[in-house]
Specification:
mainly alpha, rod-shaped
């Protein structure tokens, strides 16, 4: 395997792992916190999350 292909494969695998970790953290922490709120409060809080 050439060095460029190896480096590209490694970078894409690390990038996929990073994105998967972000999605896992979101589902673990943010969704658990939203679950504890009343439905009205969760709806009001959702649009403000990206800020």
């Amino acid at each position: 395997m050439s060095a460029i292909l190896y480096t590209a494969t490694l970078a894409s695998a690390l990038g996929c792992g990073l994105v998967a970790g972000v999605f896992f953290a979101f589902s673990t922490f943010v969704m658990a916190a939203l679950r504890r709120l009343k439905p009205e409060e969760g709806i009001a809080a959702s649009p403000n999350m990206p800020r």
